[in-house]
Amino acid sequence: MPHLGFLLLVMLIGLCAADTKGKCRLHPACAILGGHCVKDPTDPIDCRGRLVPDGCRPGNCQCCIPGCPEDEGFFLLPSTNQCFKYFKDRPRNWTESNELCLAENLVMAQPYDAVNLRSYIVQRYGFYSEFWLGACGDGTYIQWQNNGDIIRSTNPLWYPNMPGNRITPVYCLLLLANDGQWKNDPETPYYSEYYVNVRYTLCE
Ligand SMILES: *[C@@H]1O[C@H](CO)[C@@H](O)[C@H](O)[C@H]1NC(C)=O
């Protein structure tokens, strides 16, 4: 029978090797905000705070900043633990929404759970609450600005007949959030909208 100490050593070496392989690396952008990296941002156990895209590498790692301060207007979406800030002071065009998020040291939202997010916002902020998300057309697809991921036309979240040919840079991603859309088409909140039109702003 092999020595127990030897077995433990073999296990430890194995664990370390596995950890280094898929390890998340912290970038200054995350460190400066007091954050740390988490591997699976959709696992609520992993991050008790708000997630900031792009603070960690590789791509599926996310920067987690502890806390989601409600007194500063943030809210935490329980299903994915993503922390958002919603601005319903006045509607803005997409460019202005983007500038508002950046001015707050945030980015436009890229939700992991758009269906639950819409449901949360309609219930909390009322009947007409449509808001811009951080993705616009690149000529072929609607593309997330935070990580470059594309939203294919086959994505099940698209509202019927969307995005069609609304994939040029003058179209950006809108989350349909009024009471009627939420009740009638609960599973399809994505809409491609002309970027000059004004809607509310959601940052993360
Ligand atoms: C967006 O809104 C701002 C502020 O009203 C305005 O200055 C800007 O021209 C608008 N941009 C577009 C593309 O409509």
Automatic annotation (TrEMBL):
Domain C-type lectin, first and last residues per copy: 79-186
Signal peptide (from-to): 1-18
Keywords: Signal
CDD domains: CLECT
Gene3D superfamilies linked: Mannose-Binding Protein A, subunit A
InterPro entries: C-type_lectin-like (IPR001304), C-type_lectin-like/link_sf (IPR016186), CTDL_fold (IPR016187)
Protein's name in the database: C-type lectin domain-containing protein
